[in-house]
Amino acid sequence: IHRPEVVLVTGGAGFIGSNFLLYMVPRYPEVQFINLDSLTYAGNLLNLRDIEDAPNYRFVRGDVADAPLVERLFREHGITTVVHFAAESHVDRSIMTPLSFVLTNTVGTVTLLEAARKAWGDHADPERFRFYHISTDEVFGSLGPEGYFTESTPYNPRSPYAASKAASDHFVRAYWHTYGLPVVISNCSNNYGPYQFPEKLIPLVILNALENRPIPIYGKGENVRDWLYVRDHCTAIERILLSGQTGQTYLVSAGCERKNLELVQQLLDLIDEELGRPVGQSRRLITFVKDRPGHDFRYALDASRLREELGWAPAYTLEEGLRETVRWYLTHRDWLEAVADASYRAYYEKQYALR
Ligand code: NAD
Ligand code: TDX
Fold it and tell me: Which intervals hold domain NAD(P)-binding (predicted)?
């Protein structure tokens, strides 16, 4: 059992981090939350409006790879707990600019680990201190049509993003084995839900459908992803943070596998329904484009350790989660317009012109 007192949340202005803070800050008023985020294109303080004035929340703008800043935060705030979300998170961007992924995901993680080790000392008491690293299923590589990743699947990252996250996981494990730092890691499947930046498949489909623009499907749309509603990810993180065993890895998944094409068709039909368009109409926007280089074929996770040891279960089916997500985007058009700005359009042109 871990009892958090002062929690450093990194990347709390991004998609999953902001959903996590919106869930946790009101739920644990006695716990202090400090959000360290450098506000890249993916970070947005608009996401945090509902908690920005909460007495147990504060925001610090800064880079996780800035060692003096991170060490000062540990010293000045008496941080007991780290929940580390901050990352460059988009695979296609990692193919264009890999080095920024190494700097944030790998060097940034080691910078935080070093600050935690200096502040807490070797063999810190796991009841008081905990370093929780948020990672991804992509570290395990690509599955064929059968089988599942488990906690003991060997690492086999295949994109620069996955390689930078795999390296960070290895460092977190090394700090556990070498210094006894009380760490825990979770590797999660594809998330979707409110506040996700429209470079990722689901919000990109919603944005393009609203604008009647082509919906790019890589290759034949046969690649398989395992989808999890972000609010279910947040309850899993809460469980692992408070009750997960130190030194352990937990896989997080709701077991919702879909081929990309099927997922996009289901999503477009839901959008039509919610907009009062004839259902099926938006499917004509689907456009097959050149495949992603090194595109992992399938991800699927076996989450039995999380379910059995910690009693977690998802609350949303894929259909429910997708509907909630569509409704959220339709009622937050101002958010979508704010993030789909000129730099997003420039990225989009660069990414999809080549295809
Ligand atoms: P995101 O891109 O939406 O948000 C990342 C946040 O980190 C942004 O607020 C950004 O400003 C911040 N950030 C980036 N570089 C930083 C730096 N150097 N210093 C401080 N802040 C920095 O990402 P997300 O989708 O919310 O992912 C969060 C974490 O979850 C990542 O570690 C990612 O690898 C992991 N993850 C994501 C998914 C998914 O489907 N989105 C699935 C599994 C794991
Ligand atoms: O325009 C698109 N067309 C398309 O066919 C985009 C953006 C994606 N795709 C495909 C590629 C993938 O097979 O859809 C699938 C999902 O793509 P992304 O949303 O880019 O996610 P993915 O590459 O699977 O990685 C995600 O899951 C694991 C997150 O971005 C990572 O941060 C997380 O670690």
Answer: 8-325
C-alpha of residue 120 to centroid of ligand 2, in Å: 37
Catalytic (active-site) positions: 137-138, 161
102 Cβ contact partners less than 8 Å away, ≥ 6 residues apart: 160, 164, 167
| DSSP 8-state code for residue 149 | B
pTM above 0.95, yes or no: yes
- State the DSSP string of 64-120: TT-HHHHHHHHHHHT--EEEE------HHHHHH-HHHHIIIIIIHHHHHHHHHHHHH
Among 293, 266, 258, 253, which Cα is nearest to 205's? Answer: 266
Which of 9, 23, 35, 40 for a ligand 1 pocket mutation test, highest count of atoms within 8 Å of Cβ? 40
CB 234 within 8 A of CB 289: no
Domain segments of the chain as ranges? 6-191+227-252
- Pocket-forming residues, ligand 2, beta carbon under 6 Å: 89-91, 136, 138, 190, 200-201, 204, 216-218, 223, 225, 260, 292
**Interval 100-127: pLDDT, tens:** 999 999 999 999 999 999 999 988 999 9
Report residues whose beta carbon is within 6 angstroms of any ligand 1 atom.
10-11, 13-17, 37-40, 42-43, 63-65, 85-89, 104, 108, 134, 136, 165, 188, 190-191, 197
Ligand 1 centre and the CA of 278: distance in Å?
Answer: 36
Tell me the pLDDT tens digit for each residue of 214-259: 999 999 999 999 999 999 999 999 999 999 999 999 999 999 999 9
DSSP code for 283? G
